[in-house]
Amino acid sequence: MSGSRPRPGLSRRGLLVAGGAVAGVAVAGALGVEEEVLPGRGWLHRTLGLDGPDGTVPDVPPGPLTSGSFVSPARLGQRVGWSIALPPDAPDHLPVAVVLHGRGGDHTSAFAPDYLALGSFLAAAVAAGSSPYALASVDGGEAYWHPRANGDDPQKMVLQEFLPLLTRHGLDTRRLGFLGWSMGGFGSLHLAGTLGARRVAGVAVMSPALWHDYADTAPGAYDDARDFAAVEVMTRRSDLDGIALRVDCGEEDPFYASTRDYVAGFAERPAGGFEPGDHDIGYWRRRAPREVAFLGRALAG
Questions:
Q1: Which of 3, 31, 61, 111 is deepest in the core (most CB within 10 A)?
Q2: Does residue 178 lie within any of the structural domains?
Q3: What tens digit of pLDDT does each residue of 5-32 get?
Q4: What is the extent of the structural domain holding 38?
Q5: What residue stretch is flagged as signal peptide (predicted)?
């Protein structure tokens, strides 16, 4: 076929050399991606099946789940949903870990069977010997769990409205845990640091949404550079002094590099670590057993 003929002036040897050069570029590109010189490491690992197995929900029935809503003055009068998950046969006055969802989620994300199903992970942890405690989630919208210029203040909602609600439901809120992923991972670090060790026993985060600079942030995550500077956690590690800390992030996650830098900045390395995994439910389910057990130990202490 005419389409298979080499162009005039291009010899067979030239074709071989050109082909070798293309292959060399492809290999160099792959190595560059692997070393994070070029973008696309997560895509490459997903394509090659190198981002690790998806976690599975334990075959353990969850305990009672109570849900409701309230009108939140702190969130501009919005109706805010919430859920409280208890382990099976739970005693009264349990300590509680507040669960902060990622961007695009809501209070149901933590416990929905087709999402994180944390009620089952909690039940499995307690059955395996963890001290019992409650998990409680609440709607935070997409304001990144801090006060915004438009008046929406999910931080105030959690601290001044949701925690008293948990107390009224018989939970012990004198010392708390925080658990979050993505946007909620940032929020957990931020709120735990805001309250400090006198109020927070432990915080466990997966794939926290962390950036070094405002210019790198996702659209809408912060109002402006001043807003970012007021609440960023990368330079405020000392706010977590005395709080048990666990940080997990997948190596294919877009926040891997910044989370790695965040962890490296602690004098004493936090629990958790890095392994193959992406910014997705499969990875978060894989880490959930350790996150839930970690908070059980922290709250028991």
A1: 111
A2: yes
A3: 333 343 444 433 344 443 443 434 433 3
A4: 7-48
A5: none
